[in-house]
Amino acid sequence: MTNAQGGSLVEPNTHNNALHRPKFGALLHSEPNSPYPSNNDDDNFQYNRRSNAAHLNYTDSSNNVSPYAMSPWNYQRDSSSPLKKSPWLLPTSPAINLFHHQQDDFPGNSLIGSLVREEGHIYSLAVFGDLLYTGSDSKNIRVWKHLKDYTGFKSSSGLVKTIIISGEKIFTGHQDGKIRVWKVSSKNPSKHKRVGSLPTFKDYVKCSMNPKNYVEVRRHRNAVKVKHFDAVSSLSLDKEEGLLYSGSWDKTVKVWRVADSKCLESINAHDDAVNAVVAMSGGWVLTGSADGTVKMWRRVRDEKGKKPKHVLDRILLEQENAVTALAVNPTATVLYCGSSDGMVNFWESDEKRGFIHGGVLRGHKLAVLCLAVAGNLLFSGSADKNVCVWKRDESGFHSCHSVLTGHMGPVKCIAVEEDQAQEEKPRQKGDQRWIVYTGSLDKSVKVWRVSEQTPELSWTTPGQFTT
């Protein structure tokens, strides 16, 4: 399914006689000298013992929102190039639109629009009410409302790697190791004011006075342990306890009390950069690192019963490839881990044995960079420029629900919210719809509508499907 905004949504074909695009045509749509291979070839999506298998067909994606559109390697329909007459190029017509259906045939799967503001690559997203916050390497945080540029605010330094919102406070993690705290002006909702940083200046000075609060960060260099000295890669919020967790490339995870911005604990979590941290209910915390491990931590109270202390409960995964992303489903019964090899591991809750490994989802050619869970769906964004949508059924089977294509660069971040428009019309049972935001290093954010219900498609004649 394609549209004018520059993207396509590809549904898996459950039948064997799938349409295969010529390799030469795929080459013409690739980027010259790009470290990321073309993703127009057919992928063979494989699963483990608990999953299904499916073949996917890719459709053309528009380049009208990217400077890559001016590349001579990107074939344009109105181009005067002699390649236009090549028998290897499929004509641009409804005959090759693999999803040329009446709109009512699909339960709401579509690309809604693209948000582009040539300020920098998109590294972080956060949704709060009707507002979307985007962070980029331009140090700017843009705020969008109803798909329109609403306002923005700028930090003094540091690429914005992660954004999380807690009530009136907005926390942003930066490449320079700082966590900045912002608030919306009570007089003017379009204005955001910086109200502090983590740690607070008072706490930093107080800790720096005690030699015991210093740790060796590298040879001949010490730093105060309550402050990150490398990029803040991930933020996660425990709303029940009012705690904020920050993971950093300095190999530590720090625990902050949201109420007073006080650092309660610094955990030497891994042997390499911490790329992801997820707070779960019940005092559990997940961390994933470039050292290839996923660790599960349990929060306990100190002897006085005041400050929380985290102890390592178990190591869920040990591998050679870096762990790049983590996600947990809403009921905290399924854990997901994305890796630099393009795999997604998952674990399922077991009453007797805790979390047991459920298998591996294979759907990406390059590293998985971000994960998000909504309802029964898992969204995985990758350096191969695609977003795979996986659906988990009641028995625990995972299948490829669809693939969102259209980005011209790696997909770095994903945010999901419930589609409020679905309440306007009666829906079939199980037809839960989501609004999905995908941020990419192509400097754009694409907005999708994805339904958990998918029609079964079968191949009849070229250019047509039956449902």
From TrEMBL:
Residues 30-39 have a biased composition (Low complexity). InterPro entries: JINGUBANG-like, WD40/YVTN_repeat-like_dom_sf, WD40_PAC1, WD40_repeat_dom_sf, WD40_rpt. Keywords: Repeat, WD repeat. WD repeats lie at residues 225-266, 267-297, 316-348, 361-391. Residues 26-47 are annotated as: Disordered. Pfam families: WD40. SUPFAM superfamilies: WD40 repeat-like. This is Uncharacterized protein. It comes from Phaseolus vulgaris.
